[in-house]
Amino acid sequence: MPQITSPAFKENAARALADAALQKALSGSRGAFLARRQAAIAALPEFERLREIGRDIKNHTLAHLDFYLEAYAAKVEAAGGTVHWCPTADDARAAVLAICRRVGARTVTKGKSMISEELGLNEHLEAHGITPVETDLGEYILQLRREPPSHIIAPAFHLNREDWEASFRAAHTDLPRERVFRERRDILAEARSRLRARFLAADVGITGANFLIAETGSSVIVTNEGNGDLTQTLPRVHVVLASIEKVVPTLEDCCALLRLLARSATGQDFSVYTTFSTGARRAGDLDGPEEYHVVLLDNGRSGMIGTGFQDMLRCIRCAACMNHCPVYGAVGGHAYGWVYPGPMGAVLTPSLVGVDKAGHLPNASTFCGRCEAVCPVKIPLPGMMRHWREREFERHLTPATVRGNLRLWAWFARRPGAYRAATRLAVGALSLLGRGRGAFRSLPLAGGWTRGRDLPVPEPGGTFMARYARAQRERRA
């Protein structure tokens, strides 16, 4: 398993805020996602209706998940494939390793797969003498740098162009000094020149899956580089890594969700490549693998069924929530300390690794609601983050000072008269103490706030409730 540093989220975030290169990358990349998504949605009048359809497809599938998984597996096996049912990450790693060992694999090419990151698959294969080669452009540069992805669709979101060039020069020692990397196409050309031989040499190709179709036994991947197609057609063996919630009933359902996916993720009508794979090569096929395997991972997901977190399993991994999240936009993905960052990670990570390890994540939210507003399948992310905060509180995982302050606030909140009197007293005292200055730079009992920001001095006129009541009286008069 990859290292989980979610318990150190606050320290991770502080480092991220102080990292000038990261802040440059975050500020330079984020706006493009938002603008392209908005343009794509504006060009599709039925987008809101399509969101409802997508939500309903996923809800129906989750309500009958056992049926559709069994139907999917039967179709895969009828097409000559093999399904490996893996309750845990250990089971999935063992299944992949067994396939590679049986065919004598020494090199494995990989298309982009967040499930492989969840499994820590690269490290596992390397430990057993098998060389994994990432073929997605972003994943390839991260493999050279020995870094995890910071974004689920743009894994190198945290890097600047100069970072790419420096990494290539460090890893590709035969690069001529005069070679320059001014534009994206220069980076693409260098990666392709190195990967071409690796595609041809690979014994096994491993891809993720955006969707699994119960009606046909097909797996579906979407890419913009074509590396996924080469990964699954050139090697003798194709292994699909997918979690159980990726299944959908029919081809028609899959196409509806595909119309949501690219628009929400990259602002495209469809990704450049949308590839459907069904089984191994058949007689008469010009290409394709000799063996086709699907490794189906549970890893805690079935435990979410029937709970307040089931809606999270609707996620189609578009990353719209993190692209619009002010917290992710400030600290990037690595601060979240595991595979899934942003709002979707703030809900999914505690479900998979435990709220004791990931309790900071659902607290890292302004509750602005933008994540839910842009989610293509209408996942109520803020509500589920609140649920995790409640679970954390119930299990006494929050600091004693936080719990004590919440109890104090709750006492006043249940007594409106006392609450109004206390706020009047506090506002009056702060106004008196802050007379002649605009903000407090330090204040007893408020050090957690003033260490990172000023505390404005209350304006004359009393509390908000008092000013609101006065305004209402004046309006009636």
Structural class: alpha/beta
Shape, please?
Answer: globular
The count of DSSP E runs of length 2 or more, i.e. the number of strands, is: 12
- Using the 3D structure, state the CATH architecture of the largest domain: 3-Layer(aba) Sandwich
Span of the ends, CA to CA: 67 Å
CATH class of the largest domain: Alpha Beta
Radius of gyration: 26 Å
Share of helical residues: 40-55%
Figure out the total of helices. Answer: 23
CATH superfamily of the largest domain: NagB/RpiA/CoA transferase-like
State the major sheet: 6 strands, parallel
> Uncertain runs with pLDDT below 50, 5 residues or more?
none
CATH topology of the largest domain: Rossmann fold
Pfam family, one: Fer4_8
Keywords: 4Fe-4S, Iron, Iron-sulfur, Metal-binding
InterPro entries: 4Fe4S_Fe-S-bd, 4Fe4S_Fe_S_CS, FTHF_cligase-like_sf, LUD_dom, LutB/LldF, NagB/RpiA_transferase-like
Protein name: Iron-sulfur cluster-binding protein
Write the topology of this structure.
Layout: H1 9-17, H2 20-42, H3 47-63, H4 65-78, E1 82-86, H5 89-102, E2 107-110, H6 114-119, H7 121-127, E3 131-134, H8 137-145, H9 161-171, H10 184-201, E4 204-207, E5 211-213, E6 218-223, H11 227-233, E7 237-243, E8 247-248, H12 251-265, E9 273-277, E10 291-297, H13 320-323, H14 326-331, H15 342-353, H16 355-358, H17 360-363, H18 370-374, H19 381-394, H20 400-413, H21 416-433, E11 439-440, H22 447-450, E12 455-456, H23 464-476
Parallel strand pairs: 1-10, 2-3, 2-4, 4-7, 5-8, 7-10
Antiparallel strand pairs: 5-6, 6-9, 11-12
